[in-house]
Every structure is written in C-alpha cells, then in structure tokens.
Amino acid sequence: MNQADMSDRNPFEYAPAPESRAIVDIKSSYGLFINGEWVEAGQSFKTVSPSTEEVLAEVSDAGEAEVGAAVKAARRAYVRTWSKLAGRDRAKYLYRIARIVAERSREFAVLESLDNGKPIRESRDVDLPLVSAWFFYYAGWADKLEYARADPRALGVAAQIIPWNFPLLMLAWKIAPALAAGNTVVLKPAETTPLTALLFAEVCQQADLPPGVVNIITGAGQTGRALVEHPDVDKIAFTGSTDVGRSIAKAVAGTDKRVTLELGGKAANIVFDDAPVDQAVEGIVNGIFFNQGHVCCAGSRLLVQENVAEEVLARLKRRMGTLRVGDPLDKNTDIGAINSAEQLDRITQLAAVGDAEGAQRWSPPCELPDRGFWFAPTLFTGVTQAHRIAREEIFGPVLSVLTFRTPTEAVEKANNTPYGLSAGVWTDKGSRILWVADQLRAGVVWANTFNKFDPGSPFGGYKESGYGREGGKHGLEAYLR
Amino acid sequence: MSTTFQADDVTASEASLRRFLAGLPGVDQVGVEARAATLSTRSIKTTAKAYALDLAIRMVDLTTLEGQDTAGKVRALASKAIRPDPADPTCPSAATVCVYPDMVDTAVRTLRGSGVGVASVATAFPSGRAALDIKLADTADAVEAGASEIDMVIDRGAFLTGRYQAVHDEIVAIKNACARPDGTHAHLKVILETGELQTYDNVRRASWLAMVAGADFIKTSTGKVQPAATLPVTLVMLEAVRDFREQTGTMIGVKPAGGIRTAKDAIRYLVMVNEVAGPDWLDPQWFRFGASTLLNDLLMQRSRMRTRVYAGPDYFTLD
Description:
The complex is a heterodimer.
Chain A: E1 29-30, E2 32-34, E3 37-39, E4 43-48, E5 55-61, H1 64-80, H2 87-103, H3 105-116, H4 120-141, E6 157-161, H5 167-180, E7 184-188, H6 195-206, E8 214-216, H7 221-229, E9 235-239, H8 242-252, E10 258-262, E11 268-271, H9 277-289, E12 301-305, H10 309-320, H11 341-356, E13 360-362, E14 378-381, E15 398-404, H12 407-415, E16 422-426, H13 430-439, E17 444-447, E18 466-467, H14 472-477
Parallel strand pairs in A: 1-5, 6-7, 6-9, 7-8, 9-10, 11-12, 11-16, 12-15, 14-15, 16-17
Antiparallel strand pairs in A: 2-3, 4-5, 10-18, 13-14
Helix pairs in contact in A: 2-4, 3-4, 4-5, 9-10
Chain B: H1 7-10, H2 14-22, H3 29-39, H4 46-58, E1 60-63, H5 71-82, E2 96-99, H6 104-111, E3 117-121, H7 132-144, E4 149-153, H8 156-160, H9 164-177, E5 187-191, H10 194-197, H11 200-212, E6 217-219, H12 231-248, E7 253-255, H13 263-277, E8 289-291, H14 294-307
Parallel strand pairs in B: 1-2, 1-8, 2-3, 3-4, 4-5, 5-6, 6-7
Helix pairs in contact in B: 3-12, 4-13, 4-14, 5-6, 7-9, 11-12, 12-13
C-alpha cells in the first residue's frame, strides 16, 4: 500500500461542482393530497435536510380523520371511475406520468438529494431513471393483465407505506403496479422524506389523473397504523423494518386484507478466489456504500475466500480511500449524509457493539462536515457469525468482513441469517455461479454485480425479509385477485 | 489471483510465462465498463479544470503519422508543440512530437533546446508485419536520428496464437536497440493495439507481458485501427501499472492514443488516472495522450477559461 497517503498534496483537487437548487420550488408548508386536492391537517411536522439540518418545509401530520378521508376518496375513485376504465385507458395515464417524471427528473433528483441526503449522482443516474422506467414498464401491462393470470381482477383500495431510503423509487414500485392492475391507492411516505411524494402529487394533477386514484398522506407511525387498521382497505403493501412489518402482520391477522412485506436484509456478498478482483472490489463498494448503505438489500456481509482475503482487503481499503464523502448536491460526491439523527444513532451504536465484541474497525481518513448527520465509510475485520454486526441489519455504510474456505462453507454462512433478501456471487466460473445461486436462500442473487434493479425483474425476500414480490409479472400478482 | 512476482521465474520459459499470464485475475467486462462510465460523470470545474487543461497540454504527444508527411509539415507541427498558443506565453508546451523514423531528424532540428521531445514510431508500424532484423534496424535508425522515445508495436499475431515468449523476446530485443552509445536509452512505449486484442483479459495480459519485458510505457493503439483508445481499456491498463508498481516498485507510464479529440474526453482520462492509478501518475513522465486534434480543443477551452468567451477556430493554429 505505498499509495495509502495519496490524499496528501494531490494537485488535482476537484473544485466544488454543486447542482443548482434553483430548479426546485419548495413550498414553506404542504397539505395532504386527498381526492386530487390539497387538504390541511391540524397538526404538522418539519422535514429537514440531513446534510445541513436546515428545515426544508412544514408537512401535515395526518390523523385518523384524514386517513379516513383519504381511504374514502380512494374507494370512491375505485368504484366510480378507475375500476370502470379499460386497461388501455389506465395505461394512458401511467405513460403520461412516466413521461412527466422523466421530463421533470432533474427537479425530482435535486429535491430527493435535499430531503434524503443521497448524492445527486445517484438520485440523477439511478433513482430517477428507474422511477420513470417503472411507470413505463407497468403502463405496458395495464391492458395485458390476462397474460399475467386468468380472470384478473383488481383488489380495490391499496394502502402503501414506504421507507425513507429511496423515497420516490419506492413510491414508483408501489403505485405503478397498483394502478396498472386497476387499484386506487393511499400512500404514506416516510416522515423524514415526504417531499418527492408530495411533488409527485403535482405530477398526478398535471397528468389529469382522476381525483382520488392516488392519495398521498404524510405522517409518522401513528398515521401508518391508522391506515393499516382502516377497515375499508383491501391491501397493504409495506417496505421498511422487520419490526414494523411484524406488527402489520399482527394487525391484519383475522381480516381479509392482502399483505406484501418487503423488510430488512443482511446480504452476503461472496467473493471466490477466482473472482475478477478489481470489479469485485467495485461490487463490494457498490454493495455496501451505495446510498450510504441505506439499502435493504445492501451487501453488508462480505464473505471472502480466505486465500485471497488479504489481497481483496488491501484493494478494498485503497478503493475506499478514494470515496468522496460530502455535500449530496455536489456532482462529485460518492457518499452523502445519513438520513436522520435517529438512524445515525443506530449506526453509531451498532458500530460500537462491533468494537466491544472485538472486531477491528477501519475507515479511510475523511473529513466529515460539521453540521448534518454523517458517518464515514467503515469496515470491520475479524468478524464472525457470532458478532451482532454480522447478524443485525445496520442500514448504514458499515461492512462486516468474514472469511470462508470452501463453497459449501460460503453457502452455509450466507444462509445462516434470519433474513433472505439478496446475495452476491463473484467468480469467473459460470458453473459455480449457478451452483451457489441455487443453494442460496435469498430473493435476489446477483452474479458479478450488485444492487442492479430493473422493472422487469421481481424483487422480494425469504424468511424475515418479508413476502410477496415487486417488479415484473410477479409484481402484478400482489395487486390482483 | 494473488501473484508474488518474480520476473526471472515468470520469463524462464514459454510455459511459465503462459502460466503467469493465465493466472492474472480476470476482468469482468460489464463491471469495468460501468466503472469507467461512472468515473466519466465527474464534474471538473474552475481551478480543477484549469489545472487539468494545462496538464493535458503538457501530456500531448502531438502526432502526425501520414504517408503525406513532409519536412514542412513536421516543422510546423514541432513549432506548434513548442508554443501551442502563440498569443499566450503562459501556455505550456506539448510533451513530444510523434513522427515516423524518417522525419525524426527534421523534428529534432526544429525542437533542439525547446524541452519538447521527439517520439518515433518504429518496428514496421502500424502492423508490425516484418522480420525482427528489419524492426531492429527501424528502431536503431530512429534512435540514431535522435528520437528520445520509441513507440513500438507488439506482434499481435503471436500474442493471439499464444506465443507469448515471442512477443516478450521481441520487446526485449527492441528495448536493447533503444540503447544509445552513451549508455542511456530512448524511452520505450509498447503499443498493444487493443482494438485487435479485443478482450479486456487480453489487454491485462498484454500489459503485464510488456511491463515484464521492460516497457517504459504501455500504449493502447496505433490510431490506425478502430476502436483506438477507450476509457475502459485505459482503465484496465492503469490497474495493471498500479499493480505492477505494488509488486515490483517500478512505475510504468500509460498512453491512450487515437480517438481522443475533446478537452472533455481528456479530462475524463485524467480523472481516471487520478482515481485508479493515483495522483503520482498525473505527470507527463507517466501519462501521455497520443493525439493531434485534441490540442486545439484544449487550447480553446483554456482560452475560454481566461477570457470567458469562446474564440472561433480561426484563432488557433491549424498544424
């Protein structure tokens, strides 16, 4: 590692290259989007930019009455208009939404980076292209549902609760298939990242979507609970933590509500000794540091074959030294801010547990901004299956490194987790990819890549990572009876 | 994938050389192209851009390799290499002028005392289809005429049929022919012609083969075969020189050549040098651009940064 000090005296220091905020018009306060109109609620809360702690806007806190009004609007829209439309007519709206989102993508990307803290490079190059791709993809299904299953019928009103890690993308994953299948929706974005969903409400107006087909209500856990427990909801789609998922499953037990849950993960990223090593290192970095590690399918457990562990780690550390942490709106930023003070506390605590349990912590030298919520990219070596940092979802830029000796041991360790959302395999040997993928109990297995998404490909988990699939033809199943 | 490097063991026989090259870690095409694409989204502005433009100018091997080259053309190009922007004395010179062997003498005379070097292609450039003694004579001729650098081509036919020893020995022989009577030697750039090698695995193996054989620089292309230099190919070569230094302590230069026409492209390459090989390579001693039209775009962007307006193409010399 004779280049370890390469951050010193580099003459090619990139000057700040901030994306302009001027393209987004953030209002000082937002109501709830119910029945195609903006409705004020009595209570409100603030949403802040996690990179600066600046208050971006006041957002309404929906109580039971507002939740009831939103469900009622969704029911009325379902009965009176949406369920009566032919698939090709629903498709027209979805295509329109897809095009408007694509046209306004820079605006959405800037707003997403402000409210969420993720780097503009990712919101611009990953989140937004996928959002419009999702709407385009499901628009294509709307008039072809009978090819997905016999006698396809919509469920009715879908209650959708989404997390803060990919706010607009998770909205698209939920709303696009629901509308294509003929349902109407009430969607609740996470309380720390409501702004892009509220901007999306404007897109629904711009697309002339009939009132009540999409309702967006903001609030925290109480709002979500009221929505889940509302008797006139036919379907609940939730993405978030396993704890909340479990309480939703309890709440709907004994009702005829359909449920799909997309929960946590602790994915193994398995690197064999014949892997294309430089690309594997990229894949490890992308697996755990993409979106600050706020990814349910993050490759948070690196399983590396023992005979190459030293070399892979040396290369990984060198690569981590070139990651640029800072202003999410700077176009050269690789790692942005942690989404909230609460999440930062959780990451900090679990990392401290790693220290206490005897794992070795390493981070590249990097200056973190004074204000806002930040955590340096971190890896722990000397981790075993018995460590909490190898078992619990950290949901931050923290990688646990474990080793294995044989393919069988790799698979055993990879599967030895209560989760089963995703996994990665790195090897130049095609037969080994197929064998390992076949053995892994994970919803998605990436081979020689990681964190790649496509609307045509189903996504979802085994075990405590939830049930149901989103994306592809499988994703329609969750919204049809 | 771990290779503890012992040059003598590696080159002991055809079999050992083959084993060594086959044992290099593979390159995943999708991954390396994605990494290059991500790096090209870096946004280089203001002070960083000014630094990059000047550095890129200093890294240009200003090239003319045409059947129609004349002494007049070479003299004009050499003058341009010394003073790329006559209107601006702060503009740095290019690294070298790159010509065919018969033009070396003319270039050397024009450039004497300027600090700008003379690079000559040799070894039956661009195809390399000639007997070894002819390639050696070609090289010796250019060195004798005063070339400071020799850009040789490898025998791609031998490489693609797996005769690695032949490729290796030829590079060693050319390197010997680069020696001058005073004990110094002309710097040897080894052109892999990556457009003919086609796969990234081949690019990595050919890079190592050239480095083991004593190349001072590894160079992508002749500029006569498409595709010439690309970002992912250069990325693989930058990884190779980085790894080679780690294992041997020896630094090798990299030169993408052909197809790099805009300042924007050049800056993308510099970002890749910075983030893949490391900032030590951000120097004309270790990184070059083989180009002709690139220089004027660099000059145009440079003057744009100073004056805040774009000057028309007629304000930059056509040589």
